[in-house]
Automatic annotation (TrEMBL):
<dbReference type="InterPro" id="IPR013216">
    <property type="entry name" value="Methyltransf_11"/>
</dbReference>
<dbReference type="GO" id="GO:0008757">
    <property type="term" value="F:S-adenosylmethionine-dependent methyltransferase activity"/>
</dbReference>
<dbReference type="InterPro" id="IPR029063">
    <property type="entry name" value="SAM-dependent_MTases_sf"/>
</dbReference>
<protein>
    <submittedName>
        <fullName>Similar to Uncharacterized protein conserved in bacteria</fullName>
    </submittedName>
</protein>
<feature type="domain" description="Methyltransferase type 11">
    <location>
        <begin position="34"/>
        <end position="76"/>
    </location>
</feature>
<dbReference type="Pfam" id="PF08241">
    <property type="entry name" value="Methyltransf_11"/>
</dbReference>
Amino acid sequence: MKKVNLGCGDKYSQDWVNLDFNSENPDVIPHNLLNSLPFANEEVDVIYNSHFLEHFSLEEAKKILTECYRVLKKGRIIRIVVPDLESVCREYLYILNNIDKPENKEKYKWIVIELLDQMVRTQKWGLMNVYWKEVVKKDNKLIIDYVKDRLGVDIRNYYVDPPSPKPSNYLNFTKIKRQLFNGYIRVIKNLFPTDYRKDIVDQTMLGEKHKWMYDKYSLPSLLQTVGFSKIQILNEKTSKITNFKDDYLDINSDGTPYRKSSIYCEAYK
């Protein structure tokens, strides 16, 4: 059985064919996922992607799903996990409508960042990382626990400090690769008029920004326009894919959700 995980990042199973835009891991195949997928028509048994589709415009997402439909065998399943727009909007409104409570005054800043930061950030890691660092330094357990409840992550392990400076003669393959990539980005930027460069092409263009968001209505609607049917909203522990839970893609080893506040959607070709 050929099972394909698109945009897997560092969350993958060796029982799957794992693809991502860039990878230094031998278990992950580098491929431009905006191009045709490297499979024949109706070659694939299962397609999965998690927190991937929201990083593309609606038109790009439709193009990717059309490719998924092409390579998927008839009667087989695609499973998509994305951040839940409804969940974060409902939480934002709840906090706002109960802002007189002292704890909600603290939670307000985070829920606004969760809602907006990845859609509007113009620098790497955005305001989210700045805020997480501030919360961790103050050991603000209320917000640490709140973010963990919202996203399923302990921010004490996730905020990013600026990298320590290396000696000037320090050079390795990763550094060379990064320099070449940054050079490529500079070339691409120069193709745009000066006034638009910062807005259109910035350091967050690849992988960080959310270019669209989905809810329990819009994601099934998009799948339906591509041709998928029998569309269902499930949860992190339920799937029509045989033994899916054994791959620990949507759950941690202790059974907790890997990504909370998500929509889990499956559909058939």
